[in-house]
UniProtKB/TrEMBL annotation:
<dbReference type="InterPro" id="IPR005119">
    <property type="entry name" value="LysR_subst-bd"/>
</dbReference>
<keyword id="KW-0238">DNA-binding</keyword>
<dbReference type="InterPro" id="IPR036388">
    <property type="entry name" value="WH-like_DNA-bd_sf"/>
</dbReference>
<keyword id="KW-0805">Transcription regulation</keyword>
<dbReference type="Pfam" id="PF03466">
    <property type="entry name" value="LysR_substrate"/>
</dbReference>
<protein>
    <submittedName>
        <fullName>DNA-binding transcriptional LysR family regulator</fullName>
    </submittedName>
</protein>
<dbReference type="GO" id="GO:0003677">
    <property type="term" value="F:DNA binding"/>
</dbReference>
<keyword id="KW-0804">Transcription</keyword>
<comment type="similarity">
    <text>Belongs to the LysR transcriptional regulatory family.</text>
</comment>
<dbReference type="InterPro" id="IPR058163">
    <property type="entry name" value="LysR-type_TF_proteobact-type"/>
</dbReference>
<dbReference type="InterPro" id="IPR000847">
    <property type="entry name" value="LysR_HTH_N"/>
</dbReference>
<dbReference type="Pfam" id="PF00126">
    <property type="entry name" value="HTH_1"/>
</dbReference>
<feature type="domain" description="HTH lysR-type">
    <location>
        <begin position="3"/>
        <end position="60"/>
    </location>
</feature>
<dbReference type="InterPro" id="IPR036390">
    <property type="entry name" value="WH_DNA-bd_sf"/>
</dbReference>
Amino acid sequence: MFDDLVLLRSFVAIVECGSISAAARALRMTQPTLSRQLSALEQQCGAELLRRDTHRMSLTETGQRFLHDARAIIELADAAQQRLRLEQGGLQGNIRVFSTIDFGQTVVSRLISSFIHAHPGVTMELAYSNRPLHMIEEGCDVGIIAGALTDDRVVARSLGQIRRHVVASPGLVAAHRRCRRPEDLQEWPWVILSSATFGGTREVTLYRDGEESRLQVRPLLQSEGVTSLREAARMDLGVAALPTWLVEEDLVSGRLVRLLPKWEASTLPAHVVYPARRNLPLRARTFVDFALEYMSTVLTSHRR
């Protein structure tokens, strides 16, 4: 029935973008051209797929059913084409990835480098944002994020948990009474994350073998990024709960020391995310699988 996948892609783009004008911009074609393609598709179907008026656009019942089939056809065609490319010369093409800022500048950068080494035909773009859903809306293929996330617009697959140590500089430790119990840290100066998504709160919870201690702290500095908190901690400003992957070298060199080594701050979840309503190309799906395996190894190496 359909001899041109362009019509199906145009229909799906119109639905996902919410209007013909928005889809035309996304597809980089003129609005009249896209309107003609939609009309041609409806003529082939023999049914109206979209109801359009001056204020809004909505799918008909036929259009709703056809949308599912159109996506399936496109996904099969894309997968077949990319399998052929893979057989002929490995994965090809560009993948747009985003990550939360500090995680992306360290762990995710190493992940991407490892993936490109394994698939030299792939190029990648890495963007940073602590507001991940904006990046999905802007067309990124995959995200690697630290912190809590709940949204039905994305598929979120767990990469594991990020451990966090309670650390401070030797200078700060020397200036305060010896810390023997979590309650002793109640009056120490703190530097904390400002977003609850990434564990930021004025209540710090510490754990030890099933035991829990909650501290109400008064931060001198709040920041969206853990790297800035590490710098502040190095400068004797305050206590910080920082991820192991960020402070390992500081702990070895002695620039930072762990307070209450048997206690840890609450862990943070890590996820690989991608759009729930967009068909991922083979190269992006391969990257998701690679990330799941790679990150499980990295996070496992940071456990006790």
